[in-house]
Amino acid sequence: MTYKGIGVSPGVVVGPVRRIIAQEVSGPVPADISQVLSALTSVAIDLETSAENIELEVAKEVLGAQAMMARDPSVIEVLELALSEGVVFDVRPIIEDAFGGFKEQLLALGGYFAERVSDIDEIQTRLINKLAGIESAGLNLTEPTIVVAEDLTPADTAALNLKFALALVCSHGGATSHTAIVARGLGIPAIVGCAGVMDLSDGTSILVDGRAGEVIVGASDSDIGARTEKESQLRARAEAVSGPGRLSDGAAVQLLGNAGTVEDARAAIKVGAEGIGLFRTELLFLDSQVEPSVDEQVKLYSEVFEVMAGKKVVIRTLDAGSDKPVPYINSIHEENPALGVRGWRLTRTSDGVLNRQLEALAKASAGKDIQLWVMAPMINTPDEAKDFADRVKALGMKVPGVMIETPAAALHADHVLAEVEFGSFGTNDLTQYVMASDRMDSRLSDMTTAWHPSVLRAISLAAQSAAKIGKPVGVCGEAAANSYLAAVLVGLGVSSLSMAPSALPEVRGFLSTVTLDECKAAAAEALNSRSASDAESSARKILESN
Amino acid sequence: MPSQIVAVASKVGLHARPASILVKAAAAAGLAVTIGRPGDKAVNAASLLSVLALGVKNGDSIEVTVADGDNADAVLASIVEIIATDHDE
């Protein structure tokens, strides 16, 4: 029996399951102010103890901040006022009110501030559990164990004795969840979005393959041996290869880093990336309550250019909307935001924002030692591509390009790419649109992999069109970070791959073991497969045959 | 009550570590410390949630006010210094 999820931290281990089962309070929770305050203090003490015991710096900070929220004098003041008349029948709405005002304000601020709301939610849950006499979901691990849960909060992971945690597996959560961050920090395998694993009973022996994103019940000794062996091989290879991307026959594949901050750019340099293949400019906008000024933008872009001096940097213009709404730009409610006014389409409603961003890019890059490529998201038609290219060139920037992330752009790539200098496949959105499946909906996660032959065919068609007119195409989605898929994309005609810097060494190591002919053969097999899993397994077979 | 306006030096603004450092210092000050945008409502600087909810960004001007009492000027100076320091590095 195999459960499939998203592998978020690589590694192979075998061990017994221990589940963390969240308990929910049902019925009213009566309490008076002294009980509430002492429960609140006790929640704070739990969090402080956890913060002290955990070695991971990121988790320590989150827990420390949560403890401070549990001791927050403004919250205590509100609670004291609301509970001034003795015991109430159900204290829950009062607790929710005391934190609710802050939650609303933080949500309205958006960005990093809004992310704190989940910390507040957790404090409320812990406080109510404490008052209801339910101990929080800590597990006292005393032997090597694979921790299985619906989702793990920072406090959950901190309450675990992590030195006995062999792996973390969650039935919910995505690639950027807290579980992923903690597991990578600890260097243990982790899988999230793994539906069905909560049905396993405690003590069942399972194999966790954090790279493949697979949980296997009843794995054979030879399977365990083979997966362990491959894992160590991959790691050794990633460490052994450095420098620019090369296939084993010497063919060059440019390896670039994805970035959204100056720190990301530094991380890309550290792993030897040949440049930035996707610089996301949303953060600066998401982090602000009003549109950042041209000068503020120039400051950020200049810092990035300094870090990347002499190298290629592909900057994507603001991709606001859909899953990344910017309140002051995407102000109109959309029934279907993924298909709405997002990316370059914002020129229809907020033309000035995009013009000012291009102006800032031109200013920041003027006279700099940098190979600046500028790229627009959500381009559908040759007219849109031309409009973008005209504006970029009018400002003296020489290399405009477009994301190929809609079926329209892929099907019509010969005309679309004729207007610009390059194309870059955004495989996450391209997959979502080709498969007509919301990539945020975990119920559809089997539909949202770029291994689907229909997605690969869209890429193949566009890459062939690009080759005919001599325009380079790259990939800047998650697909580039999967070694096998990266090889298939190269086989389809992609000449550069941009990925999270942390994934780059492994992809570089893997590509150094395959030839261009093998990549092409794997791509041909995958294109002609019946399903995503057939495509993956047939491509892997060819790529691993050497 | 002594008060002073200061620009926030941390890149993330008053969030994460910079906010925690400020709140801890305000809680330990022994005198009531409030912060807010000049001319706007001031909040208790010892309340992390209140400080976060101000949504203060890098470069924003913030007015710090300390209640009258022993050492009020020294407390003000130390809080101002925290806000004027970049804690992200």
SS summary, helix count of chain A: 22
Mean pLDDT of chain B: 91
- How many helices of chain B in DSSP terms? 3
Structural class of chain B: alpha+beta
Which ranges of chain A are low-confidence, i.e. pLDDT below 50, for 5 or more consecutive residues? none
Q: What is the 3D form of chain B?
A: globular
Strand content of chain A: 5-15%
Main sheet record of chain B: 4 strands, antiparallel
The run of helices and strands of chain B is EHEEHEH
Tell me what you see in this structure.
The complex is a heterodimer of chains A (546) and B (89). The model of chain A has no long low-confidence stretch (mean pLDDT 90). Chain A has an eight-stranded mixed beta sheet with strand order 1-8-7-3-4-5-6-2. An eight-stranded parallel barrel of chain A has the order 9-10-11-12-13-14-15-16, surrounded by four helices. Chain A contains 22 helices and 16 strands. In chain A, 47% of the residues lie in helices and 14% in strands. Chain A has helices at residues 33-53, 57-70, 73-82, 92-109, 111-115, 117-132, 154-159, 178-186, 221-240, 262-270, 282-286, 294-307, 347-365, 382-394, 407-411, 413-418, 427-434, 453-468, 483-492, 504-511, 516-527, 532-544, and strands at 2-4, 6-9, 12-20, 145-149, 165-170, 190-192, 205-209, 214-217, 254-259, 275-280, 312-316, 371-376, 399-404, 422-425, 473-475, 496-499. In chain A, helix 9 crosses helix 20. Chain A is an alpha/beta fold and 546 residues long. With 89 residues, chain B is an alpha+beta fold. Chain B contains three helices and four strands; from the N terminus they run βαββαβα. Chain B has a four-stranded antiparallel beta sheet, covered by helices on one side. Chain B is globular and about 35 Å long. The N and C termini of chain B lie far apart (32 Å). Classes of the chains: A alpha/beta (546), B alpha+beta (89). At the A-B interface, helix 2, helix 3 and helix 4 of A face helix 1, strand 3 and helix 2 of B.
